Amino acid sequence: MAGLTLLFGLILASFCACSSNAADTAHILRYDNENLDTNGYAFSFETSDGISREERATLKNPGTPEEAIAVQGSVNWVGPDGVHYKLNYLADENGFQAQGEHLPQVEH
């Protein structure tokens, strides 16, 4: 679970690095954190520079060989181009799956 949290933190940091100088003076407008012990966690925040993020992790199949953490969330930000971006993601036993209008689409 720490690896996933680090990965999402790096993704968020890259978004923050791309934003305008407003990030230098941004402050937290809202922060919620819920520790669900070994069953998962949930958090969300919003900053004054237009970044917001929410994430929820749940334990799937506890006590079985298939036990796994599933993490679902989204992050919103305003890019240096002034465009509002939204990234939805799911990370589970099937890997990291990201969705966003700004991402290249895979044709099936």
UniProtKB/TrEMBL annotation:
Keyword Signal: yes
A Gene Ontology cellular-component term: chitin-based extracellular matrix
Domain of life, source organism: Eukaryota
InterPro entries: CHIT_BIND_RR_consensus, Cuticle_Struct_Prot, Insect_cuticle
Keyword RNA-binding applies: no
Any single Pfam family the record assigns to this protein: Chitin_bind_4
Signal sequence bounds: 1-22
Any GO molecular function: structural constituent of chitin-based larval cuticle
Protein keywords: Cuticle, Signal
Name the record gives this protein: Endocuticle structural protein SgAbd-6
